[in-house]
Design brief:
5-stranded mixed β-sheet; Helix Hairpins; about 450 residues; elongated; 5-stranded antiparallel β-sheet; Beta-Lactamase
């Protein structure tokens, strides 16, 4: 078989004994031959290697494509889920909003209508959807301008009320008109446009505004009346002084000749003198009342506990006469007009001593405390005759008396002076009381006056 120059044959490899493909070539000039064999089972190994590589690359490509595809699909799912969650969140916000939310299309038909819109206007969401919004919530006179505004925006992209907060009149299902605050904004989606709006019922706000206007007008009127009263008090306190002085002078002259008068004449003289003295006291009170707020005085630090001691020292004869017990607690220091603050204290303590209850020892207490930063409260309490709470507004008005002057002497202007002093200091005064259970006057004052530290 190996006698030929060269050749191929299939046979048993003499070395390995494997069935092989054998190729031989004769060496030129020699009888020797070169033999090469390859086992048949290993003949296709390179092809298998190439095929395996191709398959592996294909599988890797498929795996990469599948991995990318799955990741892309997961991204798409997450995006849609997030949009759905965001949409649900927005729907929840709109459903629970304290304002009505209404959405309409370019024809004015309702697309969305939240719970608050149901409560405000009286139409359910199912009833409102698909209906012309203007026919549901706008008074007839406002519907044509609304339709014209829609057409103008669709044609020009302009709308005078868009993206602004405005107030207008709306209509409830039962036909009642009421004011609302409205904010509208357009939203374009593809080739369509919708209009979203938040509406708030401002009926209570309008009532509050009207009440504020009425109170402001009333305050201005009261201020004008007070200024007139102050002017009258100022003029009266001056113009009455001269004739009153003459009356008192003639009373004294007649008093020096009392022996020449009979009993009735002496009684008339005593009554005239007493009346003239009472009138003199009223004129002085009027003068003090008119001067509060008209004479500018510098505010300065006032130790209220020291001031209270001065007041009780000045009223010592009255305290001794009444046999009163006095208690003064710790009082704060404030910025105040000292003479006017002393007048306030003196009037309150005098009232407490004057309106005492028969059969019991008078007790007057003064206490103070800081109620909040920058403010103090001073209380003047007694165990006297008290007053009916329904008369609280009267007791601070000039010349308003709850008791006859024959029983309790006074001008009827002392508490009015106290109120004016408190107001001049930027504070207020009020009172609590019950008949035969005593009274407590509460003065609230700022620690510092405006412009002072």
């Amino acid at each position: 078989m190996l006698t030929a120059q060269s050749g191929d044959f299939t046979g048993e490899d003499p070395v390995s004994g494997e069935k092989s493909l054998i190729h031989f070539e004769k060496i030129p000039g020699m009888e020797w031959r070169v033999v090469v064999s390859q086992a048949e089972e290993r003949l296709n190994e390179p092809l298998y290697a190439i095929w395996s590589l191709i398959v592996q690359l294909a599988l890797l490509s498929v795996a990469v494509m599948l991995t990318f595809g799955l990741s892309w699909l997961q991204t798409i799912r997450n995006y849609h889920r997030q949009r759905q969650e965001a949409g649900e969140h927005i729907r929840m916000i709109l459903a629970t909003a304290s304002d009505a939310f209404i959405s309409i299309d370019s024809e004015g038909r309702v697309l969305d209508w939240n719970r608050q819109a149901e409560l405000i206007f009286g139409w359910s969401r199912e009833e409102a959807r698909g209906k012309i919004m203007a026919e549901l919530i706008l008074p007839p006179g406002h519907r044509a301008p609304h339709a014209e505004g829609l057409r103008r925006y669709i044609a020009t992209g302009e709308g005078p009320i868009l993206n602004r907060r405005i107030e207008l009149t709306a209509l409830r299902r039962d036909g009642r008109e009421f004011p609302v605050e409205l904010t509208v904004w357009p939203l374009r989606e593809g080739g369509t446009v919708r209009f979203n709006a938040f509406l708030r019922d401002i009926s209570e706000r309008r009532k509050s505004q009207q009440l504020l206007v009425e109170k402001t007008t009333e305050l201005a009127r009261s201020q004008a009346e007070l200024e007139q009263l102050e002017l009258f008090a100022f003029v009266a306190s001056h113009d009455l002084q001269e004739p009153l002085h003459k009356i008192l002078a003639f009373s004294e002259m007649l008093g020096s000749s009392r022996e020449g008068l009979d009993e009735k004449g002496r009684q008339y003289l005593d009554r005239m003198s007493a009346a003239a003295l009472h009138l003199s006291g009223m004129i002085e009170q009027l003068r003090q009342f008119s001067r509060i707020g008209t004479h500018e005085r510098s505010f300065g630090p006032v130790e209220l506990d020291e001031l209270a001691k001065e007041v009780f020292a000045d009223l010592e004869p009255l305290v001794q006469e009444a046999g009163a017990e006095i208690r003064v607690g710790e009082l704060p220091t404030i910025e105040a007009d000292r003479p006017q603050m002393k007048q306030l204290f003196q009037n309150l303590v005098s009232n407490a001593l004057k309106f005492r209850r028969e059969g019991s020892r008078p007790l007057v207490e003064i206490s103070g405390r800081h109620t909040e930063p920058g403010w103090v409260e001073v209380r003047v309490s007694d165990n006297g005759i008290g007053f009916e709470p329904r008369y609280l507004d009267r007791i601070f008005k000039p010349f308003q008396r709850l008791h006859p002057a024959s029983r309790y002497k006074g001008s009827g202007i002392g508490l009015a002076i106290c109120e004016k002093v408190a107001m001049r200091h930027g504070g207020k005064i009020t009172a609590e009381g019950r008949p035969q259970e005593g009274s407590t006057f509460i003065v609230t004052l700022p620690v510092y006056q405006k412009g002072l530290p």
